[in-house]
């Protein structure tokens, strides 16, 4: 069997590699020539543990090759980004152009699958696009949606072991797509229709966003009420049917902070809670920045000098180097702008250097600072002692006090 993966990013490339390892002949297509060149040399352009060795193996055995254009295969997978247009409207133009690129190659019996996170209705839209240009293929090809749900850093394991939801435009398409994934997925495959599968991906990430918003809202209430939110959540979670997540300095990354908008853009009247959760999580970052600025002002008034402030963490979540949509980065930027960058030490132990922020070692910054702002719960920060001689703003529960 031959399969073509349109998009060799964080999801497309690992999936293509795993499929190739399971005996499927893969053509990986990317619009970025550097990605194509690196992949063909067996060099991984993303960071993912264990993936480099696997890539080298499938390239040298000839099971995977990268190209700027698709070629005739038996199955086509659309694994490209779905960003925003502005105003939080999803932009499916990458899915559309990848689909247009494969249309000339489609033939009777082929499988076409979208994996990109997409607004509800996208698979049917792409089916119409295909049939408009190739009416003779109507009812002769299989079209389905199958969202990815892997966690960066654990992709090799999760691609194989996670359950998958697969929704076709008809039952035959669902079955055909399941047949494909069965070749390398050990998790359960759950068949449904394409609209439900599209909504399922958005639901998973919106659910997490709403739950984090609840924790963040509690943190705001507790701050005003003088209650330790970490202790409160820990105690509430002793109830056998309560499981509250952790508050933080906001929600970041390219999934949880983004996907809910794919629902609110299309169903504004119905998605009040989902929209409110987005607002609460965004507000939490703004609130944290204000809190830092207020503490700096208080310090200056009582000490008659400007404080030295350590901003601990830039990544969007603990123990990674990914700064995409990072609330910590937003807070650091906002605080630095408000004080002309004076006396602010920026810390991110998971990256070597940054083109905007001058980075300081975490121990050095902690020792020098009058105000320590814990933004990301990196493991290394947990080794730092609590000090009563410093003002510590712990937004991510390093000390849980
Ligand atoms: N966060 C909190 N409190 C918590 C948990 C997380 O504030 O209790 C924050 C994190 O600090 C971070 C944000 O939420 O800023 C998102 O982190 P995450 O770990 O929830 O999610 P991602 O973006 O790393 O990966 C998610 C995963 N989805 C879920 O956990 C439901 C992953 O399985 C998906 O494949 C991925 O999104 C995706 O591509 O959709």
Task: Give a structural overview.
- The chain has 401 residues and is α/β, with parallel strands linked by helices.
- 41% of the residues lie in helices and 13% in strands.
- It has 13 helices and twelve strands.
- It has helices spanning 12-21, 33-40, 51-60, 93-102, 122-133, 155-161, 171-182, 194-225, 229-236, 260-264, 272-303, 327-338, 362-368, and strands at residues 2-6, 25-29, 64-67, 75-78, 111-114, 142-145, 164-168, 189-193, 309-312, 344-347, 371-374, 391-394.
- The strands form two sheets. An eight-stranded mixed β-sheet has the order 3-2-1-4-5-6-7-8, with helices on both faces. A four-stranded parallel β-sheet has the order 10-9-11-12, sandwiched between helices.
- The longest helix has 32 residues, at 194-225.
- It is elongated.
- The model has no long low-confidence stretch (mean pLDDT 96).
- The structure holds ligand SAJ.
- Residues 149-151, 204-205, 208, 212, 245-246, 248, 251-253, 255-256, 316-317 line the site of ligand SAJ.
